[in-house]
Design goal:
Layout (H helix, E strand, L loop, with lengths): L2 H14 L3 E7 L2 E6 L4 H10 L7 E9 L21 E9 L4 E8 L7 E3 L8 H12 L2 E3 L28 E6 L4 E6 L10 H4 L3 H4 L6
Parallel strand pairs: 2-5, 6-7
Antiparallel strand pairs: 1-2, 3-4, 4-5, 8-9
């Protein structure tokens, strides 16, 4: 760690102790992982605690770790509970100390991911949490107006989940007979989108190309 990131890490260890799941540093930024049960308390101290003062929430987003740690990855992320598929990541800024911090927490239930809302701590979390709900299906307990923000209200599913079908579940069109917009089953036929040169080992030979 650099002197600055080590200073941030020491401040976090002093403030939270055993509430910390992990603290890591990469690319000059510290990431703090906490359990979802401790999120509200930790975030309140991060905003108000002496020596911390993270007054600003820059961003919050959902993450689907369903395939993380498998064939394409070297390791799995530190988990904050029994779940581990869905996480919420927050980016905080301390104007007082000129510090940046990333906070990650994992929902403990993969089937119904629930995390406490931080809207009462940073009102700017409102639309960020609605976006994570819309795209990932993460429920934010305590949010006063949790509804879709990017997709249509009749949309089925959550499009940023890794198991969401590429063609979607339904399609929308205008019906001239009914004179209104209607939903119907997807009419696009699934097709192979991986190039043949990638999925077929001897593709070049079969097409008459010579290997160099």
């Amino acid at each position: 760690m650099t002197a600055k990131t080590e200073q941030i890490a020491q401040a976090l260890r002093g403030a939270f102790g055993e509430l910390i799941v992990s603290i890591t540093e990469a690319l000059g930024e510290v990431t703090l992982v906490v359990k979802s049960a401790d999120l509200s308390a930790v975030m309140t101290v991060l905003r108000d605690g002496d020596g911390l003062r993270f007054e600003q929430l820059i961003d919050a987003c959902g993450v689907d770790y369903s395939s993380y740690g498998k064939e394409a990855w070297d390791g799995a992320p530190p988990k904050g509970g029994a779940g581990g598929r869905f996480a919420v990541v927050y980016h905080l800024l301390s104007l007082t100390n000129n510090w940046r911090l990333r906070v990650r927490t994992f929902a403990t239930d993969d089937e119904l991911p629930v995390v406490d809302s931080v809207i009462n701590i940073w009102p700017s979390a409102n639309w960020f949490e609605r976006e994570a709900f819309d795209l990932y299906g993460i429920i934010f307990n305590g949010h006063p107006d949790l509804r879709r923000i990017l997709t249509d209200y009749g949309f089925i599913g959550h499009p940023f989940r890794k198991d969401f079908p590429i063609s979607g579940n339904v399609e929308m069109r205008y019906d001239p007979d009914q004179q209104r917009v209607i939903y119907q089953p997807v009419s696009i036929e699934p097709r192979e989108i991986v190039p043949r040169i990638v999925r077929e080992e001897h593709y070049a030979d079969s097409e008459g190309f010579r290997k160099g």
